[in-house]
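hey so i finaly got around to running the thing on YceI-like domain-containing protein from Psychroflexus salis. pasting the sequence first so u can double check i didnt mess up the copy paste, my clipboard has been acting weird all day
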Amino acid sequence: MKRNFNFLICLILFVSLLSTSCSVETEKHEIVTPVLELKAVGPLFEGSNTSTATWEFTLEELFPTIEGEVIIEKARITAIQVKPKSNLDLPKISKMVMEMKSKYTKMNRIGLLESNIQQDKTYDLQIADEQEEVDVAITDERITFVGDFDMLDEDFYEDVIFDLQVSFEIETRK
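ok and heres what it spat out for the C-alpha cells, dont ask me to read them lol
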C-alpha cells in the first residue's frame, strides 16, 4: 500500500513538472477593431432582423512588433459596443444578439443587449461567458459580426446602420 502511495506521489510530481515545463510563454495584447458599419438592408419588418459587418485584417497589422510567424494561443472578446448611426432614422428596436463567424468557425454567440435601442446612445453588450473559437477566428484574418435585433415597428423601408466596435484580449506566443 505504501509503495503504491509513493508511486502515486512520484507520478503526480512528474506530471506537474511535465506540464509546467511544456507550457509556452505568452504575451497579452489588447486589440480593438476600427469602427465597423453593422448594417441591415431595408426593407425591414416587425420581428427579428439581421445586420452584418465584416472586419478584414492581417496578423502582421495587428501585431507589428512580433517578428516571424504570429501564433495565437488564446483569444477572447472583452467588450462590444454598438451605437445607432447618427443622422439616420431609426425604427423602434428592442434587444440585440451579437454573433460572429469566420471561414473556419461556426456561428458563435458573443454578446447580448436586452434593452431598447435609442438614437445617439452607445450600448455595451453583455459579453458571453463561454466564447468558442475566437482564437481560430483571429487566425482566419476575416471575421463577420452578425447582429440580430428585434424591430417593434411594423415595417421600415430604409437601412438600419450601427457603429460597432469589438475589443479582444489576445495571447500570442513569445
